[in-house]
Amino acid sequence: MNGRVKIRIVEGSSLPPEVLNRRWPRIGGLDEELAKRVEKIIHEVKLRGDPALIELEEKFDGAKLSPDKLRVNREDIEKAYEKTSSRLISAIEYSKSRIEEFQKEILNHLRFTYKKEGLQICSCISPIRRVGCYIPGGAAPYPSTLVMTTTPAKVAGVKEIAIASPPRCKGEINHSILVAADICGVDEIYRIGGVQAIAALAYGTQSIRPVEKIVGPGNRYVQAAKILISRDRPIDFPAGPSEIFVIADDSADPRLIALDMISQAEHVDASSILVTSSRRLAKTVIDALEKTVESAPNKEIVYENLSRNGLVLICESLEKAVRAANDFAPEHLEIMTENAWEIAEKITSAGLVLVRENTPVAASDYCLGTIHVLPTGGFSHVYSSLSVLDFVKRFCIVEASKDRLMEDWRSVKALAESEDLINHILAVEGRFTDEE
Question: Can 332 be counted among the known catalytic residues?
Answer without folding.
Answer: yes
